[in-house]
Amino acid sequence: MLLKHGADDLYGHWAICELKFDGRVNPGKLIGQLGITRETVEPFGFKAEYFYDQMQYSEMGHVFNYFFSDDVARFFATLIHEAVKSSLNLHALGQKLPGIRLPTFFRSWPY
């Protein structure tokens, strides 16, 4: 999210806001609400239409836990690392279980 100090602050300060379901909440009951689907994976972020409404609850007990970070570069480095690690794991799985049909990208890995 972009944090600005006022209307004249053109560039602001970027921060990461990740959400997880509170442990006291049944995530299945939230499917179909706030953009949450069966495919929603934690941590997640809200789409624009729900973001501002839900941010008002970030400081209080709510159905979500909010995690903020100012280290945007580290966040994206970790995200890329996890994506590559996952793709390597899928490739290894495809080699061990030849009956599983993987997407073309994984069948041709490594380049």
Helicity range: 25-40%
Question: Which structural class should the secondary elements be placed in?
Answer: alpha+beta
Sheet of most strands: 2 strands, antiparallel
Strand content: 5-15%
Arithmetic mean pLDDT? 77
Instruction: Work out the count of structural domains.
Output: 2
Report how far the terminal alpha carbons are from each other.
Answer: 35 Å
Assembly state: single chain
For the largest sheet, list the strands in their spatial order: 1-2
* Alpha carbon gyration radius: 19 Å
Task: Report on the architecture of this protein.
The protein is α+β, with helices and mostly antiparallel strands and 111 residues long. Helices cover 33% and strands 14% of the residues. It has two domains: 1-70, no CATH class; 72-111, no CATH class. The strands form two sheets. Strands 1-2 form a two-stranded antiparallel sheet. It has a two-stranded antiparallel ribbon with strand order 3-4. The radius of gyration is 19 Å and the shape is flat.
